[in-house]
Amino acid sequence: MSLTQTSAWQNLAALAVAFRKKTLVELFDADPGRATRFAAEACGVYLDYSKQRIDAEVLAALQRLAQQQDLSGRVAAMMSGERINPTEHRAVLHTALRAPKGYGKVVVDGQDVNVNVHRVLDRMAEFASRVRDGRHRSATGELFSHVVNIGIGGSDLGPRMVNEALIDFCDGPRTHYVANVDGAQLAAVLADLEPASTLFIVTSKTFTTLETMANAGAARRWLVRALGESAVSQHFIAVSTNAAEVRRFGIDPARMFEFWDWVGGRYSVWSAVGLSLMLALGPQRFREWLDGAHAMDRHFCETVPASNLPVLMALLAVWNRNFLDSPTQVVAPYAQNLEHFVHWLQQLEMESNGKRVHRDGSPLAVSTTPALWGDVGTNGQHAFFQMLHQGSDVHPVDFILPVRATHPWPEQQQMLIANCLAQSAALMRGKSADEVRAELSVKLSGSELEQAIPHRVFPGNRPSSTLLVQRLDPYHLGALMALYEHRTFVLSLLWDINAFDQWGVELGKSLAQTVLKAMNGEEVLLDASTRELLNKSLTY
Ligand code: F6P
Question: Does 89 qualify as catalytic in the annotation?
Fold first, then answer.
């Protein structure tokens, strides 16, 4: 039976037809308790979803969809180490990476997951402490004052984002991130660094990714030119699941921090992929960050769906996407240090749920994840909020607002908060033609007034959620990240898709190899456009 033929889905479709006639202003007028009724809180994160286009009946119907899709069973399967990634036949246990020592017992491939996780965490902490306190120095005996993480996708976006978000809590070596195969990024980073004080972390689950291996090779040559081949072992660390490829690259596996196949790339920041963070933050704050995520894991596993933040956010996302036909999802963190949060979230959500077939391979009859985009506030207000307020389409917004500032200008934090709350209010209530007329009639009249009005009307009734985060510190960032990871997982089970593979990245990778062969003069088959572009690019 197709998903659209299930009773929960059909009930929601029927409700949506009726619901389209209701506006948020009417819903608030009819229910003075709405603002607190449609809110939930966990781990220092407060979710206000009262400005979403729902009522108690819609919420109940959405919860029935979650029940129909076996929410509790699928969560239990993931946490128990079942191989819930069917196309790669792997377990999915990123939650185990942040569980305290001795918490729970899950065995995968005959190994106690918690024991292995903490063995690596202890090694990371020992190594980070030695680098931070100077016991582990460079080939020339200098302190490692700079760390360069070379990786891409999940081997870059998470560490980069967390480092940026928690910059005020970093007191270790300065950390830099190189991802793009465009040499401009590596060149810009190395331009400011000295080989003698630079530690490289080559982070790659497969240790075969083109961009990462190219950048790592260039960095290795940069170091060897300055300090000789013997310096490599002291200055290069590998983070991978693939010891053979690490050795082939020329890094001793003894200088490798491992992680496991049951950790998806976009869910891997909590593993040794986060080594650059352990160096920058130190073991204690790294643990606080893990603890925040673990607290959200427990909330997700132990809280009833009606009060469960990840479940609520996923249900609202399906309601907006599949029943109110929203074309995209906007995320607007009102915190400059969350400038890379949307980039991290884009891979998490769109590489997980950008799928078109069910877990069993049958085609989907519904849309899956919309394009997720956004930028920090207040900057977005001066870039794309015009479209959000008066554009032809409705784009739901997640506002994320860390309430307590970590900077010394409280009056500016007040301005930030005021703008964030004002934007969600403006999206919700809009401004009617009558209101515009009343405003403008003091200075305009007649046809001039009538012509001006349509351009100044705000349709309103544009949904948003607001997430208040107590403070942008390790614990609360960990909780916020885990919240969105579980939102992604719940969305995948609502659509019955596999969130944990990414076959869609393979074709482009293999065609790039074909084009590279053509560039090296090999006879390969290329379509006419690519052949023409390649010829042009060689002489343009
Ligand atoms: O984008 C494809 C992908 O495989 C991601 O899933 C992954 O995070 C990234 O490339 C990097 O992969 P690796 O860590 O193996 O270099």
Answer: no
Which residues 6+ apart lie within 8 Å of 244 measured at CB? none
**C-beta of 505 in contact with ligand 1 (< 6 A):** yes
Residue 222: other Cβ atoms inside 10 A: 17
| Gap between the Cα atoms of 373 and 57, Å rounded | 30
Q: Which residue's CA is the nearest one to ligand 1's atom 1? A: 153
What residues contact 137, with CB distance under 8 A and at least 6 apart? 143, 144
153 lines ligand 1 (CB under 6 A): yes
Closest CA to 159 of 239, 260, 258, 273: 273
Rounded (5°) CA angle 52-53-54: 95
Is 476's C-beta closer than 6 angstroms to any atom of ligand 1? no
- Residue 509 is among the residues annotated as catalytic for this protein: yes
Cβ atoms of residues 93 and 101 within 8 Å: no
Phi and psi for 220 in degrees, rounded to 5?
A: -60, -45
Q: What are the pLDDT digits (tens) for 388-446?
A: 999 999 999 999 999 999 899 999 999 999 999 999 999 999 999 999 999 999 999 99
CA 266–ligand 1 middle distance (angstroms): 8
Residue nearest to atom 2 of ligand 1 (CA): 505
Contact 155 CB / ligand 1 (< 6 Å): yes
Catalytic site residue 258? no
Q: Is the pTM value of this prediction over 0.90?
A: yes
Any ligand 1 atom below 6 A from CB of 466: no
Active-site residue (options: 164, 258, 288, 351) = 351
Residue 341 pLDDT greater than 90, yes or no: yes
Q: Determine how many CB atoms are found less than 10 A away from the CB of residue 218.
A: 17
Report pLDDT digits (tens) over 224-250. 999 999 999 999 999 999 999 999 998
Atom of ligand 1 nearest to the CA of 240: 14
Q: Pick left, alpha or beta for residue 539 (phi over 0 → left; psi -120 to 50 → alpha; otherwise beta).
A: alpha
Query: Exposure of 162 by Cβ count < 10 A (0-12 exposed, 13-18 middle, 19+ buried)?
Result: buried
Ligand 1 and 240: CB distance under 6 A: no
- Structure-token pair, residue 456: 């100044």
The HSE-up count of residue 372 (CA atoms within 13 Å, CB side) is 22
Distance (Å, whole) CA 142 – CA 134: 8
* Nearest ligand 1 atom, CA 209: 16
First to last CA, the chain: 54
Q: Closest Cα to residue 332, out of 321, 323, 348, 345?
A: 345
